[in-house]
């Protein structure tokens, strides 16, 4: 690996220039300082999957409120003569899809013509002649409502429980953690089913069943974070300056723990949506005529052979929401995870 | 280690006792009599029936009888679904199909997931990687009952490749349900292995192996894969939970005479003895699996400080 230089090439004078270092310049901040949230937003924007999911989810939320309103039919209004109509959307019917053609006795026929239906049902109708378009969006609204409320309650209990346990430590922490250890030992499925059985079926029952032990995950994460931060110097400094417990918790610990809380919540929501649909599917969900995505899928499954569209629309929507939420959650985790910043 | 296992066992017993107590009193406070059409019976008949199910004794005695029976594996007597049959027998007789599709789904999903994750990590940021990531996201997001009904509609009904439902054609009947259950383990394993492999591939000992002239496949299999595989044990617990949860609906969809299908039915007909028995059976199953996974992980990877608990 020895290389010989016969001659060092000569550099013309003036190639280099002496610069003087200014001690003041070294401290100058050249870029505008970026706050944690600006930085996170920048990272999220760069994540195409998460950004698309965010837009998609926004559209779904808007439609869940707008859908039942723009549809000329009430979600629960029955028109028996219009039962089991396939979807028909004016405009794209010429493309050969969503043209109101369904199978009857093994043959493809335009069921709208056959049944003398003048109007269009964009997502078709179900077995009782109810408009699937307004039902699906109404169901989405109900499913999202259950998931968001359940996630919010989980977050509230989890943050308070985990925060108290981690911040005060000692005997309090010991007892609180033993309780959590036993609660997390009980399988989620078992808890949810047992609680649904005691209560009258409905939205409230599902929310309570989902949150009764659902908060333990959040409490563990928050406790871990609080334990990590409370022994750091900035907390000690605040305490030395005479800050009260509540000030330390709200002003110093919370902003640091917030990222983890958000990430955790973003993963609670899809799991709540899943459980609601799951319960509805095994017959423990909302009672007719109320509909959620889960009950719609359950109803549609019964008619899968004759009218697959009744299953298709709620199933597609449920899957889209789940995919969007998982992608947003992944994106947020990458954007907010403090470990990535090191 | 022994101390850790002992501690975990004690927690397990407390948790199970709590679940059993809870389910017992739940059954007591639920409205209606477990004796079908109780109003039509004469007081004498009623007394006979109640004595048969031990309902004539005071509550604390019933409770201790029940708990004592549990310890011996006696889950009580079915009230209306399987008239008078032992719940334990009902569950045991239905274990076969459930265990088969659960096991097949788990193995299929994990093996395919590991392969997918590995290929994705070795071809990071290529279309193979993106496809595998997409498959993983879809697998985690789409609920098993949606996936199961899709499989049933296309592979069973439209293309007629597999039996649409029922448990009559041996292995062929188990294919679609197993595939439906395999989606979650597949997606989880793929995601997990990909992350682990990428981390391992960037570590110093891989650079050393490269510097010493190890071939690509040698690095991939001998060094990276083996070290990426160990942490996969930690997600076996959640996978088992997902398979069990999924089996309730997947068995329902494919009309498989397993525990899940019978559980859903017992909920519909309010057979509380079966509901309770199955609940306790599920709890024991899941709690034992999670305990085994934790112990296994500690044994295989000595770096884990068990006494410290998971972060």
TrEMBL record, chain A:
TM annotation in the entry: 50-70, 142-167, 179-197, 203-222, 257-286, 306-329
What protein name applies here?
A: Oligopeptide ABC transporter membrane protein
Please give the superkingdom of this protein's source. Bacteria
Topological relation to the membrane, as annotated: Multi-pass membrane protein
Family membership, please give it: Belongs to the binding-protein-dependent transport system permease family. OppBC subfamily.
Q: InterPro entries recorded for this chain?
A: BP-dependent_transpt_permease, MetI-like, MetI-like_sf, OppC_N
Say where the protein is mainly found: membrane
What is the organism of origin for this protein? Planococcus donghaensis MPA1U2
Looking up SUPFAM superfamilies in the UniProt record yields: MetI-like
Q: Name one GO cellular component term.
A: plasma membrane
Keywords, alphabetical: Cell membrane, Membrane, Peptide transport, Protein transport, Transmembrane, Transmembrane helix, Transport
> Which N-terminal stretch is annotated as signal sequence?
none
What NCBIfam families is this protein classified in?
Opp3C
Start and end of every ABC transmembrane type-1 domain?
A: 140-329
Does the keyword field hold Transport? yes
Compartments annotated for it: namely: Cell membrane
Q: Which GO terms describe its biological process?
A: peptide transport; protein transport; transmembrane transport
Automatic annotation (TrEMBL), chain B:
The protein's UniProt keywords, in alphabetical order, are: Cell membrane, Membrane, Transmembrane, Transmembrane helix, Transport
Membrane topology value: Multi-pass membrane protein
Question: Entry's Gene3D superfamilies?
Answer: MetI-like (1.10.3720.10)
Q: Where in the cell is it found?
A: Cell membrane
Give GO terms for biological process: transmembrane transport
Asked if the Swiss-Prot or TrEMBL record annotates the protein with the keyword Mitochondrion, the reply is no
Positions of transmembrane segments = 9-30, 101-122, 134-155, 175-193, 229-254, 274-300
Q: Where in the numbering of this chain does the ABC transmembrane type-1 domain appear?
A: 95-297
Q: Does the keyword Transport apply?
A: yes
- A cellular-component GO term for this protein: plasma membrane
Entries under Pfam families matching the protein: BPD_transp_1 (PF00528), BPD_transp_1_N (PF19300)
For this chain, the family text in UniProt reads: Belongs to the binding-protein-dependent transport system permease family.
Q: What is this protein called?
A: Oligopeptide ABC transporter permease
Organism for this UniProt entry? Planococcus donghaensis MPA1U2
């Amino acid at each position: 690996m020895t290389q010989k230089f016969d001659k060092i090439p000569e550099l013309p004078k003036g190639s280099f220039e002496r610069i003087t270092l200014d001690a003041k310049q070294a401290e100058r901040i050249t870029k505008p300082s970026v706050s944690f949230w600006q930085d996170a937003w920048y990272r999220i924007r760069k994540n195409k999957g998460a950004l698309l999911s965010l837009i998609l989810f926004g559209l779904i939320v808007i439609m869940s409120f707008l859908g039942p309103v723009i549809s000329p039919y009430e979600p629960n209004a029955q028109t028996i003569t219009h039962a089991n109509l396939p979807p028909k959307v004016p405009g794209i019917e010429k493309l050969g899809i969503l043209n109101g053609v369904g199978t009857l006795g093994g043959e493809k026929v335009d069921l709208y013509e056959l049944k003398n239906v003048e109007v269009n049902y964009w997502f078709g109708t179900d077995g009782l002649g109810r408009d699937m378009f307004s039902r699906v969006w109404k169901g989405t609204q109900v499913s999202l409502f259950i998931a968001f409320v359940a996630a919010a309650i989980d977050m509230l209990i989890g943050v308070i429980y985990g925060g108290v346990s981690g911040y005060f430590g000692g005997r309090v922490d010991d007892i609180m953690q033993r309780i959590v250890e036993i609660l997390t030992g009980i399988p989620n499925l078992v808890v949810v089913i047992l609680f649904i059985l005691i209560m009258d079926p409905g939205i409230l029952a599902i929310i309570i069943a989902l949150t009764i032990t659902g908060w333990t995950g959040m409490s563990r994460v928050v406790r871990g974070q609080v334990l990590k931060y409370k022994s750091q110097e900035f907390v000690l400094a605040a305490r030395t300056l005479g800050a009260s417990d509540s000030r330390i918790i709200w002003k110093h610990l919370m902003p640091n723990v917030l990222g983890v809380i958000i990430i955790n919540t973003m993963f609670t929501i899809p799991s709540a949506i899943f459980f609601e649909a799951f319960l509805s599917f095994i017959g423990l969900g909302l009672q007719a005529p109320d509909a959620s995505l889960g009950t719609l899928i359950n109803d549609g499954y019964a008619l899968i052979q004759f009218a697959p569209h009744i299953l298709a629309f709620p199933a597609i929507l449920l899957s889209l929401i789940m995919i969007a939420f998982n992608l947003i959650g992944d994106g947020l985790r990458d954007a907010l995870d403090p470990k990535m910043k090191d | 280690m022994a101390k850790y296992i002992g501690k975990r066992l004690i927690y397990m017993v407390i948790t199970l006792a709590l679940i059993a107590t809870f389910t017992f009193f739940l059954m007591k406070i639920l409205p209606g009599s477990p004796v079908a059409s109780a109003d039509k019976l004469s007081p004498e008949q009623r007394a006979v029936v109640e004595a048969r199910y031990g309902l004539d004794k005071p509550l604390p005695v019933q409770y201790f009888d029940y708990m004592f029976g549990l310890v011996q594996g006696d889950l009580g007597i079915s009230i209306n679904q399987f008239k008078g049959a032992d719940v334990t027998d009902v569950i045991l007789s239905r274990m076969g199909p459930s265990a088969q599709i659960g096991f097949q789904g788990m193995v299929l999903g994990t093996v395919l997931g590991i392969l997918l994750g590995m290929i994705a990590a070795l071809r990071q940021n290529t279309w193979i990687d993106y496809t595998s990531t997409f498959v993983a996201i879809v697998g985690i997001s789409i609920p098993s009952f949606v996936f199961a009904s899709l499989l049933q509609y296309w592979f069973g009904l439209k293309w007629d490749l597999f039996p649409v439902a029922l448990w009559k054609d041996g292995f062929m009947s188990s294919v679609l349900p197993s595939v439906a259950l395999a989606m979650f383990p597949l997606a989880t394993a793929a995601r997990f292995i990909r992350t682990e492999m990428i981390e391992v591939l960037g570590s110093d000992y891989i650079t050393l192996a490269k510097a010493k002239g190890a071939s690509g496949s040698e690095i991939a299999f001998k060094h990276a894969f083996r070290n990426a595989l160990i942490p996969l044990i930690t997600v076996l617990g959640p996978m088992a939970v997902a398979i069990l949860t999924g089996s309730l609906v997947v068995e329902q969809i494919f009309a498989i005479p397993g525990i899940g299908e019978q559980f859903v039915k017992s909920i519909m007909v309010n057979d509380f003895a079966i509901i309770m028995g199955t609940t306790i059976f599920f709890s024991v199953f899941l709690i034992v699996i999670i305990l085994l996974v934790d112990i296994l992980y500690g044994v295989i990877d000595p770096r884990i400080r068990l006494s410290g608990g998971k972060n």
